[in-house]
Amino acid sequence: MSQAPNEKKKIILSGIQPTGVFTLGNYIGAIKNWVKLQEEYDCAYMIADMHSLTVRQDPKKLREQILSAFAIVLACGIDPKKSLTFMQSHVHQHAELSWILSCNTQFGELSRMTQFKDKSAKHADNINAGLFTYPSLMAADILLYQADLVPVGADQKQHLELARNVAIRFNNNYGNTFTVPDGYIPKAGAKVMSLSDPTKKMSKSDSNPNSFITILDKPEVIVKKFKKAVTDSEASVRMGEGKDGINNLITIYSVVTNKTVDEIEKEFDSKGYGYFKNAVGEAVAEHLRPVRENYERLINDKAYLTEAYKRGAETASKFADRTLQKVYKKVGFIAK
Length: 336
Ligand code: TYM
Description:
Order of helices and strands: EHEHHEHHHHEHEHHHHH
Shape: globular
Bound molecules: ligand 1
Strand content: 5-15%
Low-confidence stretches: none
Helix content: 40-55%
Number of helices: 13
């Protein structure tokens, strides 16, 4: 979507919060699909910097992380000439639409969000209004671009469902305004699990660094972390119930090598877990190697990054404004 989106193609929108370095979960659950989708559709991908303020941030660190996040997204293969890439805070229409949608979202709906419950428990000293209305801002992100599809991991399903409900409600109350978006959740890898506790989601905010792989981890670190991954006592490389660790490793290996589960089970038949874990580590390290190399080059090219996000915001803003003005008219505001 380097130009205003072509109406004939499906429109894709997704975002990622610039909090900490991205994990293999972010990559497999979301960014890898973003790259795939940009070949076929009109895509818009943003760094959700406004969302990250729902948790306290150090401004200096946040500023670095936003740029780094943008560089990682490009390093993974998002081409700003093919996809619209921008920072959420550069497009003021997100905050504006978010207000209108907040007035069309019920307290009860927001109270049911599991992420709100989890994050309020985790940050009990800072249960701010933004944390509560976060899903309305996410709905605004999606609906502003009239997105058809939203590629996300499984943990964003509930927020996406809310965005759909808000879109349907608004359309019913004010007449057809928004495209009702569908989720694009990968069959394999929608929930990459922690390496140290495979019953939990892999998360960049986990206090144990061995529980997650970051996209920028060095190959030897990746291999080492996989060697420590928690498995089970069965010692057979097969998917199965109660084998959360092995199921997770097989899924990861399958996504990065494009091999089917059957092929993997055959390949490692009669091989021990140590051997398999080493193979997974090496495959992931190899898969992420070009991403890390691209990142090292891009993060040192500030002029290129600045030009890319400025151009992205300019085009995004034009498109977002069309929707916002339509919404303002529908709700009864007077045109400027
Ligand atoms: P965020 O920043 O938490 O995560 C970015 C993407 O990574 C996916 N993800 C995972 N997928 C599989 N396994 C995991 N362990 C894993 N961890 C994270 C997430 O599902 C997500 O797709 N609210 C969003 C950002 C956002 C957004 C949007 C997304 C803001 N506006 C509009 C889509 C559309 C978030 O906090 O994602």
